[in-house]
Amino acid sequence: MSIVEKSCNINGVETNRIVELATNMSQDETYGKFRFKADNEWVYGSRSQTSIKTFFAGNHEQSERRQPLIVNADQPVFLAGENTAPNAVEHYLNSLVCCINTTVVAHSSVQDIPIEALKVSAEGEMDARGFFGVSEDVNRGYNKIRVNISAKMPVKKEKFKELISYSPVYEMVAKAIPVELNINID
């Protein structure tokens, strides 16, 4: 009996669904081709609003969301905004920590690894002189991102790093700029 047959809900994840998706992708390489969309519109000042609704996956357009998901962005008052929402570089960090979390949970669940606790945080360092056009000699975005992970689960650090390696956003970030991982496993 396989792990999935024993329990189809591990760590709150329907593992049968994940195995089904992976099986479909292994049998049809086009099944795994995804295309996500985000439409952003300026609201006022530094505020903008992103609408996310449909996406392409499993060989066709997925329209399971009846209403679009709305994500707001703004700037802190210090940066001439109204501080009504995170700014774009904060959303970038949010994407990274959410994706690492989701990836670790999904892969741990399918492998029947229980998670007692998992916390992922990130801090990005940047020199805003590039954004403000004060210096052409500095990057406009992050120069370094530090990811801190605290987990309570029965795995060694190497196994945990393997779980993280499946994260799409982590891969996108790590290939673009240095990413320092600090992992604490209890």
Automatic annotation (TrEMBL):
Family matches, as Gene3D superfamilies: 3.30.300.20
Pfam families (alphabetical): OsmC
SUPFAM superfamilies the UniProt entry points to: OsmC-like
InterPro entries to which the protein is assigned, alphabetical: KH_dom-like_a/b, OsmC/Ohr_fam, OsmC/Ohr_hydroprdx_reductase, OsmC/Ohrsf
Coiled coil stretches, renumbered: none
Protein name: Putative OsmC-like protein
